[in-house]
Write a structure and sequence with these properties.
With 255 residues, this protein is α/β, with parallel strands linked by helices. Helix content is 45%, strand content 22%. The protein has a domain at 109-253: 3-Layer(aba) Sandwich (Trna Endonuclease, Chain: A, domain 1), CATH 3.40.1350.
Length: 255
């Protein structure tokens, strides 16, 4: 997928671009703006102090009130740092996966589109990496969760639920990966008229993965180091001809 430059040149979206844009938006709204407000309050307080200790004698109440309000905004903004760290960690994970794809899969006839923008009803979301190759189409959902300092770093999948060191998240990653793959399938049908199968892939960056039926489950669970070895072994449910692959790549490249 691509963005359009103001002079008309199409620029393909980069890995993690949605997360980078989300980070910039959060940073501007919750960090930069509060600090600017705080700075303004401090300046006003300083001016009022000059008035008090100079020839003019206005009250400092207004200046101190503005400074207090500014500090409160900063405190509220600092609470967003955890969310911002998670966004940056997600972006880094997508870059790691993109590098693995470029190194291990592109030389073997695969084509990848990063940060593909999708729409499901009223909801807008993206597929981190849409991979098109000789053995099918793969929608890769990347997760780069923080890891415990001690103990296991293991993610398991039993065909229904994904568990990170035995703990399932409220928003189950397997269901999310399946939904993204279905939306990618709809996008390809809309653009090409082809009914294709898109395999959901969940890539757990830096986590040891364990699936009791690797290729039989609805979602292929792997870590980034396994992309080059496991994806080429997936048997396509709906074989794609070279002509169909070229059509899909051409249509997605023009979006």
């Amino acid at each position: 997928m691509s963005d359009v430059h103001k002079i008309g040149t199409k620029v393909r979206r980069l890995p993690g671009q949605s997360l980078r844009e989300q980070f910039d938006d959060r940073f501007d709204n919750h960090i930069t703006l509060p600090f600017m407000i705080a700075a303004a309050g401090i300046v006003i307080a300083f001016i009022e102090a000059m008035h008090v200790y100079g020839n003019l004698k206005p009250s400092m109440v207004f200046g101190l009130t503005m400074a207090i309000i500014g500090v409160l905004f900063v405190v509220l903004g600092l609470r967003k740092f955890k969310e911002l760290r998670a966004i940056k960690r997600g972006e880094r994970g997508e870059l790691i996966v993109a590098q693995a794809i470029e190194r291990d899969l592109l030389p073997n006839g695969y084509v990848v589109f990063h940060d593909v923008q999708l729409k499901g009803g009223k909801r807008r979301f993206n597929v981190d990496h849409l991979l098109i190759g000789p053995n099918g189409i793969f929608a890769i959902e990347t997760k780069n969760y923080s890891k415990p300092k001690r103990g296991e770093v293991k993610v398991t999948y039993d065909g229904k639920h994904v568990r990170w060191n035995g703990v399932s998240h409220k928003d189950d990653e397997a269901r999310q990966a399946i939904a993204v793959a279905m939306a990618a399938k709809d996008l390809i049908f809309k653009e090409t008229g082809l009914k294709v199968f898109v395999k959901p892939v969940l890539c757990a960056v830096g986590w040891f993965t364990c699936s009791n039926d690797l290729y039989g489950h609805p979602v292929l669970l792997l870590m980034e180091k396994q992309l080059g070895s496991l994806i080429p072994k997936v048997y396509p449910k709906v074989p794609l001809s070279e002509q169909d692959r070229n059509l899909i790549v051409a249509k997605l490249s023009s979006l």
